[in-house]
From TrEMBL:
Residues 334-549 are annotated as: B. It comes from the Bacteria. HAMAP family: HSP90. Homodimer. The keyword Cell inner membrane does not apply. This is Chaperone protein HtpG. One of its GO terms (cellular component) is cytoplasm. Its main location: cytoplasm. Molecular chaperone. Has ATPase activity. Residues 1-333 are annotated as: A. ATP binds at E36, N40, D82, M87, S102, G103, Q125, F126, G127, V128, G129, F130, T178, R333. It comes from Mesorhizobium hawassense.
Amino acid sequence: MTEQKTETRTFEADVSRLLHMMVHSVYSDRDVFLRELISNAADACEKLRFEAVSRPELLGDDAKPRITIAADADNKELVVEDNGIGMSRDEMAEALGTIARSGTRAFLERVEAGKATEDTQLIGQFGVGFYSVFMVADRVDVISRQAGSDEAFRWSSDGKGTYEIAPAPLETAPGRGTRVVLHLMEDASSYATPYRLEGLAKSQSGHVPVPIALVEKPGAEPRDIADGTALWVRQKSEIKPEEYTDFYRSIAGQYDEPASTIHFRAEGRQEYSVLAFVPGSRPFDLFDQDRKGRMKLYVRRVFITDDADVLPRYLRFVRGLVDSADLPLNVSREMIQESPLLASIRKGVTNRVLGDLAKTAENDAEAYAKIWENFGVVLKEGLYEDYERREQLLKLARFHSTASGEGWRGLADYVGAMKEGQKAIFFMAGDDRARLEASPQLEGFRARGIEVLLLTDPVDSFWVTMAPEFDGKPFKSVTQGAAELADVALPENAAKPDAETPSDIATFLAFVKTTLGDEVSDVKASDRLTESAVCLVAPEHGPDRQFERLLNAAGRLDKAAKPILEINPRHGRVAALAKLGDDEQAFKEDAAHLLYDEARVLDGDKPADAKAFSARLARLIDRGLAKG
């Protein structure tokens, strides 16, 4: 140990930014730091319990886990100590000098942009909870000794950009575990008073599965203030709502109220307890590209891992834990994840969570609407990935539509309101709802009062290809193939389309097709347009317009399909163009290309050839000026 020197390092960039914000921002509640320290200490004790299954010598003669809070009001110091797994020198640098959890950058950028009005609701969501100590302390020392090691190290920092790591004398270090010493700021000295510490520990962390003791002043005997009884093993009838909320905030790193609490014990072939929560707001790592779940796994109250594969990825927003009585302890974390027993638990927990969501949707539509607003885009991933539960998920799904206003529409309600003669569930996919609502492809559907789902999430274009029907009704894009509107009657006062396309219009359509050549696969008279002159649709087979864009952007489309140009034979401009003679050949050719470019622009694309478009538009303007 004596050969190792003191080392000064600079915090990782994200940590430096975070510390700066904590020091220079005014948070509404600084109390959260104690909960974060206790949570870290409890995790350290639980990790040691797991390691001791295969290496019992790590426990030595100190087998009972504990967390001790010690107050020193005279010196304005506060100590939180555990006898858990402890840290090596490298682990200290990794755990206290960097932030590992995905989503940190989004968290920081949101705070810096002034969008984080929740203040303390943001602390602790990405492994940043430890740094909350710098809201109350102007210097922090962490002394740690790893279980089974004969070395100890001290980490020290004032939170202003650098930290120091040095060997610590064994006589001043814990026998095992970690001691965090806070040198409190003047305006935070009340955190060294016993009555305040006891109140905070009981209210915020009384549920942790490790006993907590309080030392009221230097030299005093520790006094137990929490017995370490795990909340999830208690009867639901014994647990107060605020206890559930406190536990949720601790395990989820959230500071809001849970939208739903799921607490049950399964008995039979497998025995396990589950305590899970649907958060009241989106976690910042909801769209982590690894899409990892945040469910903790315990085996007979021994902590195994904090990202167990207990729920499918589309339920990764659920926070909580599973405690199994049947899984083996004498195998690695990786082998437990592959256990057939865990597969059975995964199925049971997933069904229970989805069942709870279904009950909420049925009994409290307003509460479920809030859940869907937060997590619907993630739940819809299951429509693409989970064939076994697709029907169940379709019943949970909610959508905006041309008939829903600002509210949400379920598929059962959609099917119940379908028009006589309507054979499909119509949808339109895109990336902007306002643009979708203004799309010309919707005109014929709107004229007949046919509801169309407006799908604006990227995943929508994928799942509709995998979920061919709901309640016997297929899903059909309004931007693909024939509109199939003839079977749905128009209102009595609406203008009825001609049974056949007039000959001059048919001749003009043929001319447009010849003029455009390979740019389109076909030019047709449209029954879906009532106001606009043109629109583009995809061929009947293959991807619809939006799905094709997504595939092309991802480099997964070898060759784009040629679109179909639909022209409204009842539009005045089209009728006028159709009446032009052969002496207007050049003008008609320009008009054919401009109609195609108009359709592209209405579809959210650029003109096919910007320079040619500009030249044609100039000639059109010159023609109008000459006639004027």
